[in-house]
Design a protein that fits this description.
238 residues; 6 helices; 7-stranded mixed beta sheet; 2 domains
């Protein structure tokens, strides 16, 4: 079960943090189920003068530095089924910059998985202790990931009898809400008022007090709704 939203796809992550890696590591691969990014090929790396590394990604190449289908979806790195990030790498090409000692950071789009490698004399990546110089950039990815939530929105309307409890002419309240003279809340939580006639609104239930919703035999769900306006505007409603 994923507890954090990804900061973005692998391409977006590189666009956000490429400057953090410049001069600290030779290559960065951001593993993601949607788009896996490679900084040396990506436009964000190119504008920084990033050198080719001869890396080979096993996946379907889109635009430079962006790869689809490196894996099936899962609970591994970046929402993939990958447990070993090296499984998405092919042979390194010495003619395009691969060399012994070349450093490689592989990180997921939540920053929860990361590893550091260096190429050996046979151009095979060998995992090394994670260097302190890269800790900050990985921490920034994780810091920018918000909690993964399932949002529930309640949609309801203010009926005629409810509006008649506020003013003698119910349509005046509708016009006041639509004209932004009257502010509407549900249990104190801000709402989105839909365009069109009447007062139809939508609210995030996580911002409403616990046990705020009820039920009546009509049948209908019942929610607390408040109308806030200046006293002189209230008098003008009639």
């Amino acid at each position: 079960l994923e507890h954090r939203m990804r900061v973005g796809c692998g391409s977006a992550t590189i666009g956000m943090f490429a400057t953090q890696w410049r001069g600290l590591v030779d290559e960065v691969v951001v593993v993601d189920d949607h788009i896996t990014g490679v900084v040396s090929e990506h436009q964000a790396g190119k504008v920084l003068g990033w050198q080719e590394t001869g890396i080979k990604i096993i996946g379907r190449r889109s635009t430079p530095g962006r790869y689809f289908k490196v894996s099936e979806p899962g609970l591994g790195w970046g929402g993939t089924s990958i447990s070993d990030p090296l499984s998405i790498l092919g042979e390194w090409n010495a003619k395009k910059g691969a060399r012994p000692g070349l450093s490689l950071l592989m990180v997921s789009t939540t920053g929860e998985q990361f590893a550091y490698y260096e190429l050996d004399d046979e151009l095979k990546p060998v995992q090394k202790p994670f260097p302190e110089r890269l800790q900050k950039s990985v921490g920034l990815i994780e810091d920018n990931c918000e909690p993964a939530l399932c949002t529930v929105l309640f949609v309801g309307g203010a009926g005629g009898s409810l509006r008649a409890g506020v003013t003698e002419n119910p349509v005046n309240l509708t016009r006041s809400v639509q004209g932004l003279t009257t502010y509407v809340t549900v249990g104190g939580a801000p709402v989105y008022v839909w365009p069109g006639g009447g007062i139809t609104l939508m609210v995030d239930v996580t911002r409403v007090p616990e046990n705020a919703f009820g039920y009546v035999p009509t049948p209908a769900l019942v929610a607390p709704i408040e109308f806030t306006l200046r006293r002189d505007d209230y008098v003008r409603l009639g």
